[in-house]
Amino acid sequence: MFEPTFVSPLPSLAQSARAARLNVARLLLIIVALVSFVEAGLSYRFNLREIDRGLAGEVQALRDTGFFVDQTQLAQTRERMRKVAHLNFAIFATLSTIYLFSGLFIASAPVALPLLSLILYISSWAIFCVMDPANLFQSIVIKLLVIPFLFRICLTGYAFSKGEQTSELNSIHTSLRGRPTGFLIVLLAYGVLLFSTVLTFLSLTLQETYNYDIDETAMFLGSGAFCITLVALTSYLVAPVPKLPARSDLSKRLAWSLALPAVAASVALSISYTNLLNSYFQIPTTYTLGSLFASNPLYIIAFYCLIPATYEEFFFRRNMLNYIVPMTNPHTAIWLVAAAFGMSHLGQIFSIPYLIVAGALFGYLRYFSRSMTLPIIAHTIHNSAIFLWHFSHTP
Q1: Which of 99, 139, 166, 213 gives a 20 to 30 Å CA spacing to 35?
Q2: Can you give the residue ranges of every domain in the chain?
């Protein structure tokens, strides 16, 4: 005799609970987007007023001392500064739009979109601090509240995509001992990496403002040593790092054979992009590092090419990429890590779009070769080629 079988409603109830949490995550992302857009608009208006006020003060000071002010040059300076303000607003308005898009369409990519928002939010705060150190303490309470929420949203999205309870994500959130591991440590290290750079620029600002005697070479070497130590410590704490899926020998051979042409194309894109920026902002083409390269090429190759390429590749293309690939698909993971890589270059703010593309190139070389050797070599060649180009264009 046929007897009906009853399916437990618990799985559907659990999925409904996860969907409800995802809706809360959507609302929080939309709120973050609106707050960020309002902040960008207020900052834009404030910057325009400060440009006019600052230039007016400079002009008045020059006239009081009997100097003649060239109105044409003054207009060009004002236009150049306003272009920078326009571009800053466009960048941060775009970020706000990304947060809004992530909130509206979080169900379509519940891991990638919140993770992208978290990376961009932390990085944009660091960029604001480099542009104006006073931003380090402005709205710090709000930002320190938003960042943990964004991290929690990432875990919620992962739970929704995998159909698991957030509390069961021990491999992502906590270990069996209850201490932060893996993905959380990598994100914390990324934040420390960003704000160590912010402190470096803050030191330079204090030097210029208060005439402090700071050895810039020693400071940058110390910053590099700190980054190396941070990457090594992160690699130790998250060990063993999840392995990437195996690839065929053919894909490995293709990665090695196409690496050099790809790097050459990337360098050409970098030069074109730099020239475009220089022409738009009317920046004089002076390359101090090119002069330094002429006097000590081995120093430049070692400290500006090989060493940064090594620790950046180990951090972004090993520690970070290997943790994000299992959470989403490889291509999404590569571009998310590329975004984090590009946004970490706080001293080259307007080069970030190109650096994201370069980071994606190194990520694909890492993924298809299944080796750290190839992206490190490619990154070193890329940096060296850029410096050689600077050297060849140094007056």
Answers
A1: 166
A2: 9-169, 231-395
